[in-house]
Design a protein that fits this description.
alpha+beta, 4 domains, seven-stranded antiparallel sheet, six-stranded antiparallel sheet, 32% strand
């Protein structure tokens, strides 16, 4: 290397952080208070779609309706897991990051807080009069007397030669710390519920029963640590469903109340007991809660095939198409019909009224004049034995529907069927009879072991945040020089100086009072 190259000034190169440095920076960023607040906001923001978009675990019927009415939007919702928000990958990621952030924030703050509790208040400054709050008075006050009076006001006190130092307001940091611990407790409770809890949805028709087994559910969502033996062995029968509606005024047809009367067996050996299941009044059996979340109609049909045999008879739960009038779409399948399988598309009208054009609609959600419209009758292979799952609200997949033989369409049966009436299919292949009306309810059964801990943690968080907001840290210093007493005070909480002025005046008044000390 030449002399000119040695003399040439060199541009300093920035030092790289390296892998360890980047890890430290990432950990500090993740465990900072700002990051925790951002993650908490994201968690709350991510919960909004769970309240706005129907969830598969709570309202599977509304999810199916959305797919029918707007399949493109429903597919986008499904891609972003908006039909199962609280079980989605992105919600779990935010949850785990917030959990890690809180742990990384709480541990060092707890260590700092414990050191602060053991530390005595600092010595009084030589000139307390220079502090933001100060006062001077003459009196025969001793350091011991000042310490006793400050202790009676619940100050932590340290004394020295002619001075007293006092501090108060440690509960502020206690509340702050317990608020973070409570948030962590809520997350732990939610995690425990996800691991050891379960949810299930089932539709029950009047007169039918339900047993709390995996096979009885229409949809079952267990935690990873839940087995079939984990379910509480209770059962019940739906004896009756009573629904009351507003019959007059602008809110005509609005539901006022509905109650499901159950016959409940808490265990296989227990005797049946009566229970009225209502909205927000769940059935509770040893921590397993059953909620009433919906209702509808299940008209009863009887299908006779071409050989004169009953191929199907029973109630058919219908999917609500108009919530205001409870007009519902029904599907009846008779795969055992001979010589060909039979299927029907129907519309149930709880209170059927004719229009001027000859069509019929439902005018009221209550069961005042129940009738059934035959929208279509088909024969052929419905595909129910193909091994592919089918919806009870769908007659057949589109590719199967193309192969079916249409027997009747809506124009062939303009007048709906009343209870007891029937319609004969052409060619003598069968008959459909409308025999009665029942109602159904949808239930959600949930077991969540983290429910009570989450409630306790939530209550703790409210109390803790109140402490951290209402209590302020403040210090008071007293210097005694002969008969002259100097008192100074300051706050350690930003923005609380104005509120401390009146308290400081009371402290000075108590120190300067001539009354005897209580020993």
């Amino acid at each position: 290397m030449s002399v000119q190259e040695l003399d040439k000034p060199r541009t300093p190169r920035p030092a790289g952080l390296g892998p360890v440095g980047w890890l430290r920076w990432g950990w500090r960023t993740l465990t900072s208070m700002r990051t925790a607040l951002i993650l908490l906001f994201l968690l709350a923001l991510g919960s909004v779609p769970g309240s706005v978009v129907p969830q598969r675990g709570v309202e599977p019927g509304k999810v199916a309706t959305l797919y029918e009415q707007n399949p493109t939007l429903a597919e986008w919702y499904d891609k972003f897991q908006l039909f199962d928000v609280f079980g989605s990958a992105w919600f779990a990621a935010v949850y785990l990051l917030l959990f890690t952030s809180l742990v990384g924030c709480i541990v060092p703050r707890t260590a700092t807080y414990l050191r602060e509790l053991r530390r005595k208040p600092p010595a009084a400054p030589k000139r307390p009069a220079r502090l933001p709050h100060s006062a001077t008075f003459d009196g025969e006050l001793t350091a011991e007397q000042a310490a006793r009076r400050l202790r009676r006001m619940r100050f932590r006190v340290a004394t020295g030669d002619g001075w007293v130092s006092a501090e108060k307001g440690y509960l502020r940091e206690t509340g702050n710390l317990f608020f973070h611990i409570a948030l962590l407790g809520i997350l732990v409770a939610i995690g425990a519920g996800s691991l050891f809890g379960y949810r299930g949805n089932v539709l029950v028709v009047e007169g039918d029963g339900f047993a709390n087994t995996v096979a009885a559910y229409d949809r079952f969502m267990p935690g990873s640590q839940v087995s079939a033996e984990s379910l509480e062995p209770f059962s019940f029968q739906l004896a009756d469903l009573k629904v009351s509606y507003q019959v007059t005024g602008e809110r005509k047809g609005q539901v006022l109340d509905y109650s499901a009367h159950l016959k409940v067996n808490d265990s296989p050996e227990a005797e049946a007991r009566d229970y009225d299941l209502k909205v927000n009044e769940p059935l509770d059996v040893d921590g397993t809660q059953t909620y009433l979340i919906g209702n509808g109609y299940a008209p009863v049909f009887k299908v006779t095939d071409g050989k004169g045999q009953v191929a199907f008879e029973g109630p058919v739960p219908c999917l609500i198409e108009d919530k205001n009038t409870m007009a519902s779409g029904c599907v009846v399948k008779a795969p055992d019909a001979q010589p060909e399988q039979l299927g029907f598309l129907l519309r149930f009208l709880p209170t059927s009224v004719p229009l001027t054009d000859g069509s019929h609609v439902s005018a009221f959600p209550g069961e005042l004049n129940p009738e059934v419209q035959v929208l279509g009758a088909f024969s052929g292979d419905l595909g129910v034995r193909s091994g592919r799952p089918q919806s009870v609200y769908e007659l057949a997949p589109p590719e199967v529907m193309k192969k079916l033989n249409p027997l009747l369409m809506a124009s062939d049966t303009p007048k709906p069927l009343a209870v007891g009436q029937s319609v004969d299919l052409p060619g003598g292949v069968g008959k459909l009879q409308f025999t009665g009306v029942k109602e159904w309810i949808t239930l959600q059964t949930a077991y969540d072991p983290g429910r009570v801990p989450a409630l306790v943690a939530g209550g703790t968080a409210v109390v803790a945040i109140a402490l951290s907001l209402m209590i302020r840290r403040r210090r008071v210093f007293v210097r005694i020089d002969g008969g002259k007493v100097e008192v100074g005070g300051l706050t350690r909480t930003e923005g609380s100086a104005a509120g401390f002025t009146e308290e400081f005046a009371d402290i000075v008044q108590a120190l300067s009072a001539g009354e005897k000390d209580v020993r």
